[in-house]
Amino acid sequence: MKKSTPDQIKKISTLISRQHLSEMKDALVDQFTSGRTTSRKQMYINEAADLIQYLVKDDPSTKMRNKVFAVAHSMKWLYPKMHEVNRMIIDRFLERRGAVKKPISQMNEKELVLVVTQFVSMQNKAELRTFGETVLDEVLAELGIDKATGRATKSQK
Q: Which one-letter DSSP state was computed for residue 154?
């Protein structure tokens, strides 16, 4: 079997450090190698991939990126005719109007906090606007007023 790659070793080190798990590093490697080694360099590629997947799942930065994607989905920032978030739209928005002006994949934890706050605020405003429009439509319908013209409908004349 092939040993873990330098990129995998670097990714594992970064994730362990970011999650403040340095004291547990040896135990994590031991667990994912079934007790064969405690060295990241001695891990096999598949073992390193499994450990990375495990660490990414609990990574705060990953959770915040997923929150941004979920909010973008709720605001319909989707590919046409698909139900998948269009990350290019998110990156372009961030580069022009974002709290942090760079692609989301390049942001650190502190920057992601600002972006999550911005997106949640945008979502709240959009929901409030939608609710306000719905209430307005209902009131105008009750009063028999056409929204486009502002005049009474024929049934109210």
A: G
